[in-house]
Write a structure and sequence with these properties.
The chain has one domain: Glycoside hydrolase/deacetylase (TIM Barrel, Alpha-Beta Barrel), CATH 3.20.20. Helix content is 43%, strand content 14%. The chain contains 8 helices and 7 strands. A 5-stranded parallel β-sheet has the order 3-2-1-7-6. It has a two-stranded parallel ribbon with strand order 4-5. The chain is globular and about 45 Å long.
Length: 196
């Protein structure tokens, strides 16, 4: 099994394509939303939720948690959860993804203290770097396949690169799903993957 995950913090440019691909292929995914994303893109946030995908918490506004106090961490997590529930209509708990993947034992304990479980990834597609950052649909797919192993957690992003407007993760998704299925893999949300 593989879990496809999408971080949503910057913009929603890739959301329509991603949701269309997931719908047409019958693949579930997990989306980590920031509170600011939910506020800025309420229609996209609700579309993700109503399509039946799992939501997770990605903080209010994507700070480096290692620079925050425990009280600030609690505020980031709990306020984001309230915003996501209010706008998207789904509870993101207990899944949390640290912005930038920046974490340490103190920040993990603080997130655990408000009832959340941090979830990292096993491969970052680097699609967020865009074509301006030297990436392409071919490099995105190659990274996922090179790291392929049962239980793989793929990190992608819903937004477009701010420099070139590319949405490499969205553009690669159909070929990625086909390639993973051709290798005998199925797809689950993080809830199902963790339960296994």
């Amino acid at each position: 099994m593989v879990a496809l995950t999408f971080d949503a913090g910057a913009n929603a440019n890739g959301v329509p394509s991603i949701l269309a691909t997931l719908r047409s292929t019958g693949v579930p995914a997990t989306f980590f939303l920031t509170g600011r994303f939910a506020e800025s893109f309420p229609t996209s946030s609700r579309s993700i939720a109503t399509a039946g995908h799992r939501l997770g918490n990605h903080s209010v506004d994507h700070p480096d948690f290692t620079t925050l106090s425990d009280a600030q961490i609690r505020t980031q997590v709990l306020n984001a959860a309230t915003t996501i529930r209010t706008i998207a209509g789904r509870d993101p708990s207990p899944l949390f993804r640290f912005p930038f993947g920046a974490t340490n034992t103190r920040t993990i304990a603080a997130v655990n203290g408000v009832g959340y479980v941090p979830v990292r990834w096993t491969v970052d597609t680097l699609g967020w770097k865009g074509s301006a950052g030297g990436q392409s649909t071919a490099t995105v797919l190659a990274r996922v396949l090179a790291a392929l192993t049962p239980g793989e957690i793929v990190l992608m992003h819903v937004g477009a690169n701010p420099d070139d407007g590319s949405t490499l993760d969205a553009d690669t998704l159909p070929a990625m799903i086909t390639a993973l299925r051709d290798r005998g893999y199925g797809f689950v949300t993080l809830d199902a993957l963790i339960a296994r």
